[in-house]
């Protein structure tokens, strides 16, 4: 892969493929993860997210295709030294404290740095429970210790596979906030999730996978905007009359009634003209706002799946 083409790309895959016998877990995946972003791998169970991460981390041997992790020209081993990953929950010792567990993993990498341990435990909000045994931790605390573990050695790239799995909504919100903070200062985070809201709240960009194939990738704002176009939601003193008036305007697209409001396809910058056009016929605007498509609506449009809260 040419260096200049991938300068600001931390992870690049080209036609990456994994077959397990007759099962095609990942099918010709070409994807680029830009430096400094939180990048979501989004797809339903079995769509190939974990297998993709496994190949990038050297845990699963690709059937065909190529990938690059971090800089071109360095070995995969060197790239992994600068990478932190939780693909499966790390095996912490239940009888040891959170601090001793972290110290153990820090020791494996040949270092002993109390200052780093203290800072990480504080950072993940375990400062006051650091000396309690791991077995007494809640699910959220265990997950937070996992994040401290993954941050040991201050890696440039983080792989997080379904980081809020099995957590309650409060715990999820805490972890998501923490993950957002990990993606600052130029660090790149690749996060897999089947939860649309999670990806929408946490990630800058997304690659949507379906049955091992890439459906689409890009910045979430751009993707959503590309499909939504400009839509305005308007409530007026006479919606029925307003629909008739707006439908006559040549710069207005589709006009539909929805829940006591009107959805108008039109450029947001023409809202003043829209207000004037209605006012001329004695219809007055009570409310006007630009309509944003959610990632969920986008997802179901591009994948053609049914409704639901998860991918
Ligand atoms: P989940 O969210 O459920 O973990 P996923 O998107 O991460 O799903 P993968 O775990 O990568 O998907 O699985 C992709 C496909 O590959 C599935 O059909 C799965 O059954 C299959 N698969 C994964 N690992 C193996 C394996 N070791 N042996 C055989 N098949 C496997």
The main pleated sheet reads as:
6 strands, mixed
- Uncertain segments are 1-5
- The CATH topology name of the largest domain reads Rossmann fold
| SSE topology string | EEEHEHEHHHEHEHEEHEHEEHEH
CATH superfamily of the largest domain: P-loop containing nucleotide triphosphate hydrolases
Quickly give the structural class: alpha/beta
Bound molecules: adenosine-5'-triphosphate
**Rg calculated over all Cα atoms:** 24 Å
Mean pLDDT across residues: 89
End-to-end CA span: 32 Å
Largest sheet: spatial strand order: 5-6-7-3-8-9
| Main CATH class of the largest domain | Alpha Beta
Q: Return the CATH architecture of the largest domain.
A: 3-Layer(aba) Sandwich
Give the percentage of residues in beta strands: 25-35%
């Amino acid at each position: 892969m040419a260096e200049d083409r991938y300068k600001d790309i931390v992870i690049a895959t080209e036609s990456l493929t994994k077959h397990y016998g007759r099962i095609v877990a990942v099918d010709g995946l070409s994807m680029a993860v830009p430096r400094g972003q939180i990048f979501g791998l989004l797809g339903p169970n079995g769509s190939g997210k974990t297998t993709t991460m496994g190949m990038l981390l050297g845990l699963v041997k690709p059937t065909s295709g190529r990938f690059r992790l971090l800089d071109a020209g360095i070995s995969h081993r060197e790239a992994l030294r600068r990478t932190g990953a939780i693909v499966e929950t790390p095996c912490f010792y239940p009888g040891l404290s959170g601090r001793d567990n972290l110290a153990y993993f820090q020791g494996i990498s040949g270092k002993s740095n109390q200052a780093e341990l203290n800072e990480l435990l504080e950072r993940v909000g375990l400062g006051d429970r650091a000396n309690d045994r791991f077995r007494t931790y809640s699910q959220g605390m265990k997950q937070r210790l996992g994040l401290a573990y993954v941050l040991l050695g201050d890696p440039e790239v983080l792989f997080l596979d379904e980081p809020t799995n099995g957590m309650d909504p409060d715990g999820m919100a805490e972890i998501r906030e923490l993950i957002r903070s990990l993606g600052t200062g130029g660090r790149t985070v690749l996060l897999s999730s089947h939860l649309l809201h999670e990806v929408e709240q946490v990630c800058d960009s997304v690659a949507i996978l379906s049955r091992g194939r890439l459906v689409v990738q890009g910045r979430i704002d751009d993707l959503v905007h590309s499909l939504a176009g400009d839509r305005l939601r308007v409530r007026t003193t006479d919606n029925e009359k307003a629909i008739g008036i707006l439908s006559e305007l040549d710069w207005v697209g589709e006009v539909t009634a929805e829940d006591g409001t009107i959805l108008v396809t039109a450029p947001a910058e023409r809202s003043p003209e829209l207000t004037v056009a209605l006012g001329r016929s004695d219809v007055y605007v009570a409310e006007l706002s630009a309509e944003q498509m959610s990632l969920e609506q986008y997802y179901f449009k591009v994948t053609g799946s049914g409704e639901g809260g998860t991918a």
